[in-house]
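User: Hey, my collaborator sent me this sequence without any context and asked if I could get a structure. I don't really work with proteins. Can you help?
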Amino acid sequence: MSTKSSREIGRKATGNDFLTDVWINLKRWLRKTVRNPFIVVSSLLNPIIFLFLFTEVFGQVTGGALTDALGANVSYITYLVPAIVIQTALIAASSSGIGLVDDIENGMFEKVLVSPMSRTAVFLGKALSEVVRIIIQVALILVLGYVLLWFDTGGAVGTYIATGIPGALGIMGVSIVFAIWFTAFSNIVALVTRDQESTIIGANLLQLPLLFVSSAFLPVSVLPEWIQVVATVNPITYGVDAARALMLGKDVLGVLDVNVFAGMWNTIIPALVILAVLDLVLGAIAVSLLNRASSSEVR
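Assistant: No problem. I've predicted the 3D structure and written it out in structure-token form, which is a compact way to encode the shape of the chain:
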């Protein structure tokens, strides 16, 4: 009997459908995260530290650049919050590959490979566990951002997120769409290297450089010309600008000239399309590598 036939029989024997396999993997990764106090505490502290530090460091020197790019009524806190949201999603997504390598090293990955579960469900369940963490972190950042704005200007809630509660939910949605491509990328690095240190280095090698050559901390128009070119092909630019358009309620996409839609949708729609394509391509590669994975290759 062929290996493929054995797997098909095994899959039928479990009685699990695709959604059940996703749920099983989601629960396993959530429990693994909750049982590690370091991950829980660092996940909550990271966005607080970054938001506070970047506001203090850049907030005092960016007034003129913001006024030229977006007008005089935009504070650096409301400009920065979308960047911290995307940065947090990026960090959470990068840890996904590290968790996979940990599974490889402790033998859990081999057990998953010989199970009849769908490889797509394995990847999706793992990605959804990161989504849950990202939603909690984004909610924390949005609340903290308003607290900082209130201490800075005493502004009312209505002056914080121009698009209101739907906009806040939209920012969460953007962070999820953004995180999927980097979750897939970190899992690809993990499956290729099968080494924790290499995965950490590979993920960290891209995080900070990509953030600083995007629209995250300053308007693209004030950055050097070569950075403006890089920012055009940098996915972080599209994630930050989509979240920032929802935050400010206006079109902020500086790397592409889109006038097909109305107002902020000239930023949100093209940005989400680009990120969705990236999600599909890298997600397909990650699932393909999972399908090809063999327990004999695990170190």
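In plain terms: The CA atoms of residues 235 and 245 lie 16 Å apart. You can pass these tokens on to your collaborator as they are.
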